[in-house]
Amino acid sequence: MNRYLRELADRRLAVRLALSGRVHQYPEIQALRRFLSTFAVDCLFDVGANRGQYATMVRRDAGYRGLILSFEPNPDVFAELQKHAASDGHWHVFNMALSDFDGTASFNIMAADQFSSLKKPSGAQDAIFAERNKVTKTVDMQCRRLDGLLPELTARHGFARPFLKMDTQGHDLSVCEGAGDALGVMLGVQTELGVRPIYEGGAGYRAMIDWLEARSFVPSAFFANNKGHFPLLVEMDGIFVNRALVQD
Q1: Which residue, of 4, 133, 217, 236, is most buried by count of CB atoms within 10 Å of its CB?
Q2: CATH architecture of the domain with residue range 23-245
Q3: Which residues, 6 or more positions from 115, have their beta carbon under 8 angstroms from its beta carbon?
């Protein structure tokens, strides 16, 4: 009976996503629902939050009810993020970037704001991105290392089982490097994996997978991160699990 009910709920989710044009998110939602529940995640670091689409998705579709800490550098987009989080007492937002240093840096606002990044667009990016992924202005932005910020946030919110999600447009590796040894407290990591990188100096998917594996994070799931990849895959997302959770 339980299996039947789960399958029925899965089918309802698939239909709802299809009707809203989000069927490509089905694998991600299923993977997150299982991961966050199985490992009792109590804090989700949402790095590169944009308007809060990811946080909204894990609340509405993946059934996550725990703490969410969202980080978004773009000041214009951050105002919208604040509005979306205002009615949720377990969702806190920060107008800053996470990186591998503490200080200020120029943040590039792109024509399509979801592409905005601390990195510059690659001159070799696919033509379909050229108009959307170009710098329209830059703003000075506060950057923090996660290893320095984590103790402050742990003391304030009292979480013990965090999960790190990153969508920083080519900057995910720098976020991980800025976590230092604190990365080891994460139960899992979700990162964007560039198959055909569209930012200068962005880590390719093989390099990112190898970097995480060297630090005891192994693949749990892979999926395309939007519906526009055909016939060549441009980017995908990967969820990696802390090896300590799955050791025999």
Answers
A1: 217
A2: 3-Layer(aba) Sandwich (3.40)
A3: 121, 129, 132, 133, 169, 198
- Two structure tokens written together for 94: 């920060």
Residue type at 155 in one-letter notation: A
Question: Cα 192 to the chain's mean position, in Å?
Answer: 7
Beta carbons within 10 angstroms of residue 35's beta carbon: 21
| Type of residue at 22 | R
Mean pLDDT of the region 146-164: 97
Enter the pTM of the model: 0.91
pLDDT given at position 215: 97
Domain ranges within the chain, ordered by starting residue: 23-245
Element (H, E) at 83: helix 75-85
Contacts of 110 (CB under 8 A, 6+ apart): 116, 117, 121, 132, 133, 134, 135, 136
